[in-house]
Amino acid sequence: MKKKLFCWLGMFFVSCLFLFGLTSKVDAEKFFYQENTPEYSNPSAPLKIQTKDNHYQNSPAYSNPDGKISYRGIYQQSELNKLAEIAGGDDQYLGNSGLRLAATDYFYGMKEGVPYYNVIGPDGVYQLYNESEFMSDQQVRFAADYWNKLASQTIVEVVENREESDQVIYDSEWIGSGGVPLGGQTYTNGLKFYPGNWKPDQFNETQLDQQKVATLIHEIGHGLGIPHLGGGVDGANASRDIQWGSEFMAPWSPFRNPDGIVSSDENAASLALAGMTYQTPKKLAFWILGKKNDYNVVYTPSKEVVSTIPIGVQINFPGHFLNKRYTAKAQVKIVENYNVYQFDNGIIERGETGIANQPGITQSYGMIGQVVSVTDLYTSNYDSVAYYRFDFNGDSYIVDSLAFETKIEKTGINLDFDNNYLISVEKINKKIRVTKNIIVSTIDDILLENTYKDDATRAGSTWSAGLMGGELTADYLYQSNNGYYYYGVFHNRKLHVFNIIGTQ
Predict the structure, then answer these.
(1) Which of 157, 153, 87 is nearest to 121 (CA)?
(2) How far, in Å, CA of 36 to CA of 237, rounded?
(3) What digits encode the pLDDT tens for the residues 107-137?
(4) How far, CA to CA in Å, does 240 sit from each of 6, 89, 266, 277?
């Protein structure tokens, strides 16, 4: 007989986990999240916030006034419609149909007067400090990394000091009746777990790790503002009917998910909607709008967080990402009218996902007919497409390579004389002695992986650079397109490159 579900309801709400009487490994599957609608005793009143001198919470729970979302300037109405449709789900036990109100009423919550809260401060990052002995620091970091990969940017951080955190993760003793909670998101008193209510002997080591990390991902999800996603207007159908699936914001079990914790489209769309409700609204997981493959994040049984979500800058149309930057130095002329873009290179370098800003077109900027100095070349997930970055009238812009009179050919790093490019590199460890005073250059792209077309930096001669006389260790051997060989030697924290004819 099913035991009665229980969830702590007061002037705050808590997302609870429940354990039914476990007597076998089959019963262990009954570990599950109660998909109770986040609700409190007086829905018309705001959440009571008591964080002063609270050991477990430094930031108050937050929702926009009247639960309204701030989508203008973030999404177009058609995009908002799509996010709400995905998050609403198309199955009795998947999604949260109440989230469709985001597109029609611009409201984020279960019903009028009952908004969904988050625990994110003005900086837009959910900061957690772990005091739990039951949940390891590594497991907490895996859960944080999971959400960061799903968001395609850093939205969860594990901090080293409690004072820096929004919430503290900690262990507690359950005192109550009507159910056996495993832990929960309190929204006002940290993120707590009840180790005494778990039955770890019902799992093998991998299953227990999967269950713990799934629990953390679930509860952190609530802190990010995401409700349950088990179907129905409150996301609680799966919980009420005890229906198991792969959705971790609904009843989830490692016994039913041997391949790991796999994200859903509903997760991503709900996160995108939640991001609009933060004190500082954020555009999160927007890749879901241009999804053309089975993108997801997985926490695997081998304890890895793996993502197939594109990394880079979305440009020109949904699903098109610039994901690799090369140094490319060339003078080229703009001859066609194309879109002009701007974005921060750090998005690619940090392995995040962003969207290029499109402030105008080459014609409106007066660029057509101008020769510009290209500094960077970008390739995309569409192999034949490249974009160039260049400076123009004191600012930096990115334009499709098709707008230019000539294409930049990939040559590599030029040194010593024109049309002499380093084309290959081999890691070595060889003792050498420089005996001749010859040209020496320095390069930054040691493995020749990030240069499309550039010149090495002339560093004088082997004598003026202080390379002659003593014994040196050559770390790399390079070959040029003309058949010349060069040693690469670290000296004064720079890699110096010179022809091997000057050594013995």
Answers:
(1) 157
(2) 9
(3) 999 887 889 999 999 999 999 999 999 999 9
(4) 11, 17, 19, 28
